[in-house]
Design a protein that fits this description.
With about 450 residues, chain A is of the alpha+beta class. Chain A has helices at about 1-25, 40-55, 65-80, 95-100, 105-115, 130-135, 155-160, 175-185, 205-215, 230-245, 255-265, 280, 325-335, 340-350, 365-370, 370-385, 410-425, 430-445; strands at about 30-35, 60-65, 85-90, 105, 135, 140, 145-150, 150-155, 270-275, 295-300, 310-320. Chain A folds into 2 domains: about 10-150 and about 310-370, 3-Layer(aba) Sandwich (D-Maltodextrin-Binding Protein, domain 2), CATH 3.40.190.10; about 150-310 and about 385-445, Periplasmic binding protein-like II (D-Maltodextrin-Binding Protein, domain 2), CATH 3.40.190.10. The chains are: A alpha+beta (about 450), B mainly alpha (about 290).
Amino acid sequence: MNRRRSLIVMLVFMAALLVPVITAAAQATTVTVAVVNNPDQRRLLELSDKFQADHPNIKLSFVMLPENELRDRVTTDITTKAGSFDIVQIGTYETPIFGKNGWLASIDDLAAQYPGSMQPNYNVDDLIKGIRLGLSYNGKLYAAPFYGESSMLFYNKKMFAAAGLKMPAEPTWDQVREFARKLHNPARKQYGIALRGLPGWGEVMAPLDTVINTFGGKWFDQDWQPQLTSPEFKEAVNFYVKLIQDYGVPGAANNGFSESLTMLAQGQAAMWIDATVAAGFLEDPKQSKVVGNVGFAMAPWAKVKKGYHWLWSWAYAIPTTSQHQDAALAFLTWCTSKDYIDLVGKTYGWATVPPGTRYSTYKNPAYIKAASAFADITLKSIQSADPTDATRDPVPYTGVQFVGIPEFQGFGTDVSKQISAAIAGTQSVDQALAASQDIVTKAMTDAGYLK
Amino acid sequence: MSRGIMRGTLPWMQRPAIIYLVILTQAPVLLTLYYSTTNWNFLRPDRPARFVGLRNYLDFFLARDTGRIMLNTLVFSVAVVGLSLVLGMLLALLLSREFRGRGLARTLMITPFLIMPTVSAVMWKNMLFNPAFGLISSTLAALGGPRIDWINQHAMGSLIVIVTWEWTPFMMLILLSGLQSLQKEHLEAAQIDGAGPLATFRSIVLPHLGRYVEIGVLLETLFVLNIFGEIYTTTTGGPANYTTTLTFNIYLEAFKRWNVGRASAYAIFAVIFANVITLLFLRIIRRGRDGEAA
C-alpha cells in the first residue's frame, strides 16, 4: 500500500514538472533586453508598453543595471556565448570589436532576412554618419543607435550672473578653472565644478581622456609604447585632478555621470563637463531644479583643438546566440526609429527625446524649438568629434575617449582606479601614473602588442 | 520486505548518486586546474588558448601587485577573525547568564549574520559611512567634528568593521554553545575555592572553550578568505588596490581583464593558501592546548 502511494505521488510530481514545458510552447516570445540605468532608458521602459500593445506576440523582459555592472554582465554573456540576452545595450567601443569577433548579428543581414519585422520607414540613411560608422565593422551595421552624444559644458546661469561672469562659446580649460575658483563656495553648498571621478574606463576616463587629448597627450605612440608618463599626459592628469581637489565636489572619487548630473540638477554645482544627453534631463521639470537656468557651451580645450569632446552612442545589438532574432529586430528597430522619437517628444516633451542619432531629429521644428539652447552645440559636437583624428600626434588606435582595442577594458579600468585614488588623495598623481604605466605596459606585453 | 531490499539494492542504487556528486564537485576543480595552465583570454577569440605550463603561477609571484594583495588578504582575515573572536567571546559570556529578555537579546545579536552580505555592505556604505548624509558623519558633525569619507580614506578599516559586524554572531554562537556545555559545578567549585572572575575565566572557561575556539576560528577564516560581496559593493578593491584581496583579485582578473587562465591560477593558489593557513592555525592552537595539558 505504501509503495503504491509513493509511486502515485512520484508520477503526479513528474506530470507537474511537464506542465510548464507543454504550456511554454503556446506562449508569446519573450525578448530579454539588457539596458543601462540612465534617464533615456527609464523612459524607454515606460513606453515599452506601447510596443507590447502593438505586438501582442512579443513580451519584453528588461534587465536594468548601472553602467559598470551592465558592461560586465553583457561582456561576460557575449564572450562566453551564454545567450541570456536577446538585445544588449553596447556602445561605439564594444560594437566594432564584438562585430569583428562574430558575436553580433549584423543589422543589415537581419533586415534582409526578416523584412517584416523591421519598423516601417526605418530609413537607415537617416542615421548620423559618424555614429553609424562608429557602430559598424567592415561596412556592416552591427548595432542601432539609441542615442548619440558628445560632451559639452553645462553651467548654472544664475550663479554666473550673480558673480558677473560670462561664459564664452568655446572656453579654454584655464578659463574654466578661473570660473570654478571664483564660484567655489562650499560653505553655501555651491561647488565650482562637478567632474567625474568614479573608477571605470567609461566613467572617469571618458572626460579625462578628452583632457589628455587636448593637452597634446596620447595613450600610445605608433609602436604601441605606452605614453602615460609623458609630460603632456602628466600635465593633463595633474590639471584634472587638481581642478577637482581644489574646486570640485567632495567625494568626487565616487561620482560618475549620475551623481554629477544630480549635483547640477540640484543647483549645487556651477559647472559640469559631461555627456550632451544630460541637456534633455536638465531641462525636464520633473527631474531638475534648474530648468531654464542652464547654459551650454562647447567642451573646453587647452592646447590642441582636437579630441576635446567625445563621440559615443549607446546602441542596441542582437547577439548571435539569441533564439528570437526576428522578435528582437522588431523591438530594436522600433525603439531606434523616428516614430519612437516622435513618441517620446509627444509624451515627455521635445527637449527630452533621445538625441544625436538621426538627421531628421535636427530638422524637426518641434525639436528645434524646444531644444534650441543646446541642439546646435550637440549636433556640432557630434559631427566634429572624429575618433580617427583625436590626438595631436598620429596614433595606432581609434577612439576619442577610449582606445579601441579589446584590452582597453581591462587596463583602462585599472588605470582609472589609480587615478580615482589620486583624486581621493590616497596617492599622488605621479604615483598613480607610474603604476598606470606599469599596468599598461604589462597588459600590452601580455596581449602581444609589445615584445 | 524493507530490510531485504535495503541490504540488497541500496548499495548499487546509491552509486549513480555518488558518481553524480563526485563529478559535480570535482569536475570544476579539475577544469580550473587545467585552465590555469593555459593563457585563455575571453576577449581575444583570435588568439586561441595555448598551453603555457606554470607561467601563470610564475606571473603571479612576480607581479607588482601580489605583495600588496597578499598583505591585504592577511590583514583583512586576521583582523576580522581576531576582532570577532574577542567580541564574540564577550557577547557569549554576557549571554550565558540568565537575565530577563535573554531570548530576545540573543535573537537580535544573531541577526547581523543572517542579513545578506551585499545588503549589509550597502546599508553600511550608504546609511552609516556616507560623508554627506550618513549617520556617523552627521552625528560627528552635530558634535562639531569633521565629516570623514570613511570608505575612501579608511577603506580597509571600514571593510573590517562591516565584516566583523557580520561575523561576530557566528563566533558568538559557537562560543555560547561551548559555554553552555560547561558544567555549573566546576564554576561553583572555583568560587568556593575563592577564585575571582578573571582567574575562573583563565583557568576553567578558556581551556574548556579551546576546542570551540579552534572550530570557530577555522571555519571563520575559511569563509572570510572567500569574502567577495562586501568588497564589491563598497570599495571594488579600491582606492587603487588597497582593499583588493586574493579572492577579489580572482574576480578582477577573470571579469575585468578577461584572462581566465591567470584567474584560474590565482584560484588554485587561493585554495592552497587556505589549506596552508588552516594547517597553521590547527598546529598553533593544538600546541597551545597540549602545552597547557602538559
